[in-house]
């Protein structure tokens, strides 16, 4: 059996991802986490049966997060669990660290340090003005998580870390800037992830897939990630930088004023860079970077405006062996992407 046909056996139809449940809504208004003794009669934690304060419309996780693989029917997050609205950091982190499914609506600024745990079967979605400030969210051996409509600023480590075989994660319509390290790191065997419609700005190291050149055994054939309709707005590098994973699908993104490079495929990774718009990017695509050896990379149907010549090497497994998609015309992206990315548009 060929390399491609083996991968094709894993193909599944995209599954639905919902960002609000029709279950009971819990509105957390306390300055401490609710406990098992809280009830509808406890003013510190009021349980209501009203509709959520705000919820995004029905959407589908596409790309790798939408595939029916590893026993997961796409990425549904906290669908079916209670919808909770959190207004202080302690309560927010408490719900993120619970084992049960929840749709967590974030109302206000959650300020903390370091990376904090986000467990499986969660949807974390921001209400207007919601922000994660100073810290980040960490998924360690987790699955089925949706993060949407949140602003991440000033993280003292990674803003979002997906690691240790976590899978089926959807990061959509967020705004990332000003962190100390990576904005999104996907490492150590993480798999089946989609990063879509996000605005990345005022930062250098944007997105890393594969944390080191020595981790071939854990990452080879994993790190299957789709990046689509993101705005890499003046960020310097890693859009993404990839080691070992295949296929990584980078399509319909808008790259603008990226001083160091756009995409880097290294250490025998397999990356398809398709139907993107590169503007003022001196090195749009690299095969190999710094001390990391070359990776395979195929480019097709991209637009290059005042940009350098892309490097390509070898062949890459087609993402269509996993999911169906129809790219937008890349010439339209400078108009459609800035208008649609980040918080709010959903």
TrEMBL record:
Instruction: List the PROSITE patterns.
Output: TAT (PS51318)
Provide ranges: composition bias, Polar residues: 41-52
Subcellular location, record wording: Secreted
The molecular function GO annotations come to: lyase activity
Q: Where is this region: Disordered?
A: 21-53
Family label: Belongs to the polysaccharide lyase 1 family.
- What is the recorded name of this protein? Polysaccharide lyase family 1 protein
Q: Which organism is it from?
A: Saccharothrix hoggarensis
